[in-house]
Amino acid sequence: MRAEMREKIIITCEAKIVAKGSNVGLSFYAFFANKNDEPELLMEVAQWWIMEMRLNHFEKAEKIKFLVLAL
To answer: Which superkingdom, per the lineage (predicted)?
Structure first.
């Protein structure tokens, strides 16, 4: 996964945790705008989320942050 995407995921997870608590869940769509302006990047994250990590549609933000930091 691209370094700038890893950074965006970590920042988004941290913001969600601060705003909604450590139990907040999110999907990979949380890292993108509500329009499909970066389809290749969206598919890259979807590939990692679904095929590589075998994650559910919604996962805890803390778990996602931990997984991305381990990359």
So the answer is: Bacteria
